[in-house]
Amino acid sequence: xxxxxxxxxxxxxxxxxKGIWKENPVFVAVLGMCPSLAVTNxxxxxxxxxxxxxxxxxxSSILVSLLRKTIPKQVRITSYIVIxxxxxTVIDFTLAAFFPDIHKALGAFIALIVVNCLILGxxxxxxxxxxxxxxxxxxxxxxxxxxxxLLCIGIVREVLxxxxxxxxxxxxxxxxxxxxxxxxxGGFFVLGFLLLYFxxxxxxxxxxx
Length: 209
What we know:
By secondary structure, this protein is mainly α. It has one domain (about 1-205). It has helices spanning about 1-20, 35-40, 45-65, 75-100, 100-105, 115-125, 130-160, 185-205, and strands spanning about 165, 170. Strands 1-2 form a two-stranded antiparallel ribbon. Strand 1 and strand 2 form a beta hairpin. Helix 7 crosses helix 8 (about 185-205). The longest helix is centred in the C-terminal third of the chain and has 31 residues, at about 130-160.
């Protein structure tokens, strides 16, 4: 009995950790590219999008896991989309009510969480096949990995493009910002370099293990 509990705990931790590094949604699976490029011109926007996606992914995974035996296979994708859209509506209205500036900055990309392939993919490949405990750990791990990736991009773009971090000036009035970093091309540049660096670290880790 104790051994079974230890195995379950070990499996749950593996599901949590994998999304942060081994199966990072952005740097490994290359999912969610639209928000990764569009809303990461500041660290605040990146964090807000990461947290919004976390909310939707977590609660969608819980509900899909609870209903996995009752949702007919023929309409499972439609059902997942309805569930995801429900939680996206909740987070959209919440941001509009309590954080209007962030809601305005993120714009239509909040609604586009519905079609984020990361969220729908986790429902189809994991939550619909596993219990609530594992589904929660998977959702949290993937969300942490996604938020981490957005923050990496957002921090680099804001520091170089605005000379600030979370709105706080870092270099004083004499800093000449790299305007390209807060424009769309800057998102591609930063993402490309981070993908290169992440893949280099992964290969280096394999080499020494």
